[in-house]
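Priority: low. Protein: Tetraspanin. Input follows.
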Amino acid sequence: MASERYELNMNMKCVKYMIFVISITFAVVAAMLLSMAVAIGNLFDDFQNFIDSHFFVPPNLLIAIGVILLVIALFGCVGALKESTAMINVYGVLLLIVFVLQLAAAIAAFVMRGQVEMMVRQKIFDSMADYKQVEGYRNPIDMLQNTLECCGVDGYNDWAQFLPSDGIVMEYPETCCAAPPIDGECIPRDYGCYARLSWLISQGSVLIATGTVAVAFVQVLGAVCAFMLASAIRRAKTLRATRRWHLQQSLGIMTKTIDPQYTGMEKSDANVDPDKYLPTSPSVN
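Result:
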């Protein structure tokens, strides 16, 4: 019994500290995921005119997951230190729920990565087509070309479809120029915007997908440890309750009033029962 109790207590301590360490690790990882999601979300915001709205779902979902993981990590630390079965079980269930959310975010990011090429190409072409007609479109395309140091979709020749040319000298937006124009002459940049922007969006989607998957499988380990700790806590509490009950039963027997007729070693004359001895009976010696 003693060895079993010692082994149970040691196992429970090991699992408890493991849960505590995993929760602290989750808090650190959640902070990293949160910062990564915010950075990718800000990157997408900078180029929101060239990105469909559903591409913002994975980074926003990852931000929500990071916040939830921080709360769950705190919940797990408190539950492990207090040895609360209910809190530990809730901790494990929450980890599994967040695991499902992370898989959904990862799948969405992988699926959207395949849509980047067509979306980016079409969006840039649409902005270039409206460059002269709609004043509001100048800022997005100029910002894109200036930020990524690019020109056109695949190259500067794409602007020939949208800006006038006299057959000898072609007009470019000023943001296409590799250097400030001299006497109105612009030397366009060699790189198109499509390759650079699609690479940025694809890499952001890959980071979201791989980051969430990596953390998700660690969460499964945390959930398993949580359920193991809850089981160990239940066994320990059951064992303590059993020991307490046995102790109460033992104390009850020891403090029970004993019939004085059985405390003597000799038989008394006043004793009608020949098998009973009273304290007043003479000694056999």
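Residues 262-268, 275-285 have pLDDT under 50 and may be disordered. The two ends are 44 Å apart (CA to CA).
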